[in-house]
Write a structure and sequence with these properties.
Elements lengths: L2 H16 L34 E8 L2 H8 L9 E4 L2 E5 L5 E4 L3 E4 L5 H12 L6 E8 L1 E7 L5 E5 L6 H7 L7 E12 L2 E7 L18 E7 L12 H23 L1
Parallel strand pairs: 7-11
Antiparallel strand pairs: 1-3, 1-6, 2-3, 4-5, 7-8, 9-10, 9-11
């Protein structure tokens, strides 16, 4: 084997090595066999923040009272929104909702159960024997980057984890880096960025394992494309080989000059 042949073989090995991606970079839960105990997630209940939309339902033994507070007619679309058939009250920048007859009620920084209790207490000055329930509506998450379908997705679940959110976008593509997923989240007046490693089973114990409304998820691309996928066509392989041969022929021609 002459020197030119050695150079040709070395270049071919380098190209094939660069074009392949280790299986560990394409898999979830690489450490699953190392886990001996289940992962515990100390998830805190989401607090109501400005610009959230919350569903408020007033229950009463008096049908007229229920109709007054739960009617969806004659409500301004500038102050209210709808999702899944539910009436949503927009929380303003001060954390207030404008509730019929009562006026502004500050629910900012409260859980939904605390907000329900506060609204019920405010209503007690006008009507008695009522029960109030509060829940979030029009929750949205933005999924971008190396996923099958980028976009803004609505969800109604109280608990939506990172994997379920990515599933809304069709899952990560073969070019996506499962060890380099960025989560952007508003926390107070700050925008926080978290780097997630989806191949680490311990991610389930993190605060950012569960998605909050208005989170943005960005899947970064891999540095190389794996050739281990079965859906790579022979045409693509042939084109790659042809290009490689052309480069090698050029190199050998220049060496002969």
């Amino acid at each position: 084997m002459n020197l030119k042949t050695n150079k040709l073989a070395l270049l071919l090995i380098i190209v094939l090595t660069v074009s392949c991606v280790p299986k560990r970079q394409l898999s979830y839960f690489n450490d699953i066999n190392e886990m001996s105990e289940p992962v515990v997630n100390p998830r805190m209940q989401k607090l109501i923040m400005p610009f959230d939309k919350i569903y408020i339902k007033v229950l009463s033994i008096d049908a007229a009272t229920s109709q007054i507070f739960n009617t969806t007619e004659e409500l301004s679309t500038a102050s209210y929104g709808r999702s899944s058939g539910l009436l949503g009250y927009l929380v303003d920048e001060g954390g207030n909702v404008n509730f019929p007859f009562v006026g502004n009620i500050n629910v900012g920084g409260l859980t939904t159960s605390q907000a329900a209790e506060k609204i019920q207490k405010a209503l007690s000055d006008y009507v008695s024997n009522t029960s109030v329930s509060v829940k979030f509506v029009e929750n949205q998450v933005t999924v971008m980057g190396e996923v099958q379908n980028q976009g803004v997705f609505n969800f109604t679940q109280d608990k939506l984890n990172i994997y379920e959110a990515l599933g809304m976008g069709g899952g990560i593509t073969r070019y996506g880096d499962r060890k380099n997923v960025i989560l952007m989240r508003h926390e107070g007046d700050k925008i926080m960025h978290y780097k997630l490693n989806l191949s680490d089973s311990k991610i389930a114990s993190k605060d950012y394992y569960y998605i909050l409304p208005n989170d943005v998820i960005v899947v970064e691309p891999l540095r190389a494309v794996s050739t281990s996928y079965s859906n790579i066509t022979y045409t693509t392989i042939l084109q790659s080989v042809t290009t490689l041969i052309s480069i090698l022929v050029t190199i050998l021609t220049l060496n002969n000059l």
